[in-house]
Every structure is written in structure tokens, then in C-alpha cells.
Amino acid sequence: MRSEIEQAVQLLRRGDDAALEDALTLLQNTVFSFSMRVCGHREDAEDTMQEVLVKSAPYLPKFESPNPNPNPNHPSALQSLSRS
Fold this sequence. Notes:
Blueprint: H1 3-14, H2 17-39, H3 42-56, H4 77-83
């Protein structure tokens, strides 16, 4: 799992508003970069990023990497959400 995702998950497990804001800030660049590759247009990528972050935030504290040594070429859960 990417380090920013791990950090965001740990922050979200704290359960307070400041931790939520910090976690979403950590994830923003990763999700936006992927969304930009998928969407191709900045406005669409920004909309997709916001939707992914809002939809995924409640589930991230429960997220655990299924593999301690994940394949960096395998899409993460956030990337999968970006495609939907």
C-alpha cells in the first residue's frame, strides 16, 4: 500500500475532524493524478477526485492491505472507485 494511503488510514482511525481533513489532503494528489489519467480533462478529474474522496472516506479506516507486499502495478481501491 502506498505510504500516503497508509498514513491517511491511520489518521481516519482517530475519528476526529482534523484527522479527516489531514487524511483527505494526503490522498488528494494520488486520487487526482489517477483521475487525470482516466478522465483526461482537469475539470472532470477534479469532480472525480472529490467524488472518490467523499465516497471512500467512511470506508478507509477499515481498509487493510490484503497483501503485505502489494504489486505496485495493481490498482488500489481508490483507483477502482475513480473508474466508477
